[in-house]
Each structure stands twice: as structure tokens, then as C-alpha cells.
Amino acid sequence: MSDNIQNSVLLSTFYCGRKRYRLYFHRNQIVWDNERPPYAQQTVPIENVISVQYNNIETHPADERTYNPHNFTIHYAERKESSIWRYNSLTLRHSDPLQVSSWVKTLQNHLQSFTQRPKRLLLFVNPYGGKKKALKLFENFGKPLFSIAGVDVSVIVSQRQNQIRDILIHHNLDMFDSVGCVGGDGTVSELLNGLVIRECRLRGIDPDNAAQDLPKPTLPVGVIPGGSTDTIAYCLHGTTDVTTAVLHIIFGDSLGLDLVSVRDKDRLLRLFASALSYGYLGDIAYHSERLRWMGPVRYEYCGFKKILANEGYKGEITFLADPMSGNESRCFENCQECFIKSNQVNTNKMEKNWKTIQGKFFMVSGANISCACERSPSGIAPYCHLGDGYLYLVIIHHTSLLNNLRILWRFSKSTYTTDDLPFVEIHRVKEFCFRALDIPSRWNCDGEIQHNTDIRARVHCQLLTVFSRGSSSVPVESNKSSCGLCRC
Ligand SMILES: Nc1ncnc2c1ncn2[C@@H]1O[C@H](COP(=O)(O)OP(=O)(O)OP(=O)(O)O)[C@@H](O)[C@H]1O
Fold it and tell me: Where is the DAGKc domain (predicted)?
């Protein structure tokens, strides 16, 4: 932002209805206060302003719209509780049109300097996920806000699985400056896989060649929750509130999200953003898919059946470990850990410290983010950051049914810890391999089933740019008491 814009000062008195307000604009803050008691003052930073517009004069719908030179509206967002953002507006009136135009021009100039804000968004809507309400969610909460913000949104409602991925790989996207989706983790997964493969295609890179680095997609991504669990949206925004997610896209602020590639011997199977889980969670994903008609409750039903069965899966895990010493910070807005990584050249100079564990496991998970969601406010890897370049390998050895219930109960608490549970191991890793040694389970990869059991997973630091300001550091206590793990 240029110094001239930065230092501009405005001060006027306006009417809002019958109330008189003194309005200031200085150092990027809009402040208004009542001229008469009660003397309430409100401040809105310019970066929280969505748009500033003249009001229209009410005319016959057939007539051309004319604006009222005496009235204007400041559309802005304010943080309510914890991570939740809400839309608000302030309409002001002045008898002198010059006063109004000076405010409108100055504020609009400031907003134009936010060049990171999206103008032309390609938005995919998955009508099949969650409670099948994604389109309604967009129409009710997304469309009006994007219109106020002046974002031109092109909507594609997906018609089949993997269509989003295919469109992104094969179509010309030059007319868009951003892409987004309304859906659950599976929809986000289609989006990110499509974008990375597209970038490979454009740059002539073979994604199946593990020796080549995967390229970073150029388009930033917006994630609007519309699925069943919405772990990725929750970890990005600290909530699954749709309005909050839409406002995060409109603000245009972004952060780098790590992605993890999953390969078998010959090829790239897929990339994921939240978690890759084998055993208990893999089986839940597999069995619950056929019960989709039950809605999100299918996860509880399958989880309950699987936990009672208490099966164990023999396997071998080999991982490239990193000493986790002292790293118990959580990933919130303005995260220093992620910021440092965004400025670091990825040298991959880590000591090659491979370790192998063989055994019978209840569950093996590679978490790329904390995997927090409404029912598990800390997730399975509370200290995993969005863009730290690490995976958290959570290994739960096969144990008694009672111990399984203990771990599920812990996952549903915001004060999650496993230090006193000898059957749980957590390692911070860059890469891991898994080999099934007897009856195979499946992998649950961002909620999607992956049948190849023998895989190699590697993290790619901040490969995706996502619209988000991060979640608030004030944790929200879960108000649901059911088990958290089976829905992660
Ligand atoms: N039109 C469609 N018809 C059928 N399947 C679709 C369609 N569009 C997308 N899909 C697929 O639907 C599946 C489920 O979508 P999604 O993951 O978004 O919802 P969910 O499983 O209810 O939510 P979550 O993953 O957050 O639990 C994904 O595999 C996605 O690829």
C-alpha cells in the first residue's frame, strides 16, 4: 500500500437513520462513535472491509439504476466468537455529496490496493456429499457475499466422482484467478489432486516419477465446508461455519498448506491434505461408503461396529523421523512456525534417520494437519501445523477394547494427550512407508478409500496456497460428547 494511501485521514459527521455519528479514517482503521449518549465507539480495520458502495435510488425495476450521491454503505466483516466471522454493514448519509464521494473514493482506493483479493473465482459445488445441501449453502451464504464483494463466481455443480479433478487437469483456466469448492474433504481432495496434476502437465513433469519435485499450483484455493466431517475446512478456518469460509476467500489472505503424496512402487496414487489412515479408520471409510444414505451418522454406526470387533492388522512401518523436542506449539493465525517455513528453501537436508516398527496395529495414521473437527477439537495430531513440512505419524498398537475406548474418548477432548498411554506412539516425520503383513485393511485418504496397502507417503512443504487467515487461538470446546475419532 503506498504511503499516500496509508496516511490519508478523513473526519466527518454522518447520519445513520436518525443517529449522528462521528466517522474517522486514520491508519487503516475506520472508527465511528455516537455524538450523543450512549457514547459507543466501533473500529473496523480496512482489511476487514468487504466493499464500499453508493446506495441506489429506488426506481422502477425497468429503469436504469441511479446511485444516490448522499448515501453510501460500508460492508464489513467482524469476528464474533472465537473463529467465527460475520457480515455487517453501516449505511451513512450526508447532505453534501462531496463529503460522501471523498469517503467512497478513499476507501475504495484502499480496497483496490488489496491485490490478493480474488476477482474471478471458479467454484465447484459437490451436490452429493454431506447432507446434500452444498448448493443451497452456496446460494444462501456464499452468493450474496461474493456479490457484495464484487467477486465474479462461475459455479460448476459436479455430476460424478472425479469430475472436478478432470476439469482442473484438462481445461483452460486462464480466465480465473482462483478456484474453490463447496464440499467435504473428498471434494477438496479432488480439487488439490486436479490442480497439482494440472501443473505437472503444464510443466511437462511426470507425477509418477518420485525423483522429481511436484510443482506448486499457481491458483490459490478457497475451501467452503459442505460435507460430513469437513476436517480440512475446520483446520483452515477454525470452524465449519460457511459464512466464515466465504469471508476468508473474500479477504484474499492466504497461507501455505502442506500436501502429502502417496505412491506405490510405480506411480503416484494420490495427494492428500488431512490424513491417511490404515486399520480402524480405513475400515470405517470403506464400510461407511455403502451406507451413505444414513448421512453423517454412518461414521458412528460403522465406528461402533469396528470398535467392538477390535481387529488388529499386522504391518511394517518405516519412517524418516525428526526429533520432536520442544515442539508443542499449535497452529493458529499468524503462526510463526509456518511463516518461517514459507520463507525457507526446501533443502531436504534432514539427517536420514530411518526407523522401522513391526507389529499388530489397531490404527496407523499419517496426519498432515491436526485433523481437528467439531467432534474432536484437538484432532489426532494437535501439534501438527498447516505448513510446517511435517507429517505426524500416529501409531496405535493393537490392545484391549477398553484401551481403544480410552483413546477415542481422549480424541474427543480439547485437552488431548496420549503421554500416559503406552500403546500410542507419535512421531514427527517427513516420509513413511507401510507394508501389510497379513489380512489387509484399506487406507482412508482424506476420507476416500485407497485399496493399495503397501504405500510410501512423503510431505511436500506448503505445496498449495489456500485462502485463510488461520484459526483463532481461543479453542472452542466441543459441545458434542460422542466419539471424535470415527469422524476424523
Ligand atoms: N455429483 C457427484 N456424484 C457422486 N459423487 C460425487 C459427485 N461429486 C463429487 N463426488 C464425490 O463425492 C464424494 C464425497 O464427497 P465429500 O467428501 O465432499 O463429502 P462427504 O464424504 O460427505 O464429506 P467428508 O469427506 O468431509 O466426510 C467424493 O468422493 C467426491 O469425489
Answer: 116-266
> Does 486 score more than 80 pLDDT?
no
Tell me, what amino acid is at 199?
Answer: E
User: What was the ipTM of the complex prediction?
Assistant: 0.97
Going by alpha carbons, the residue nearest to atom 2 of ligand 1 is 160
pLDDT band at residue 60 under the 50/70/90 scheme: low
Sorted by sequence, the CB contacts under 8 Å of residue 335 that are 6+ apart come out as 255, 329, 385, 386, 387, 470
Mutation probe of ligand 1 site: the residue of 126, 188, 299 with most atoms within 8 A of C-beta:
126
Q: Rounded to the nearest whole angstrom, what is the distance from the C-alpha of residue 261 to the centroid of ligand 1?
A: 20
pTM of the model: 0.91
The CATH topology of domain 3-112 is PH-domain like (2.30.29)
Find the 129 Cα to ligand 1 centroid distance in Å.
Answer: 4
Nearest protein CA to atom 11 of ligand 1, as residue: 161
Task: Tell me the fold of 120-325+332-338+353-487.
Answer: Tumour Suppressor Smad4 (2.60.200)
| Burial state string for 411-434 with b = 16 or more CB within 10 A and e = fewer than 16 | bbeeebebeeeebbbbbbbbbbbb
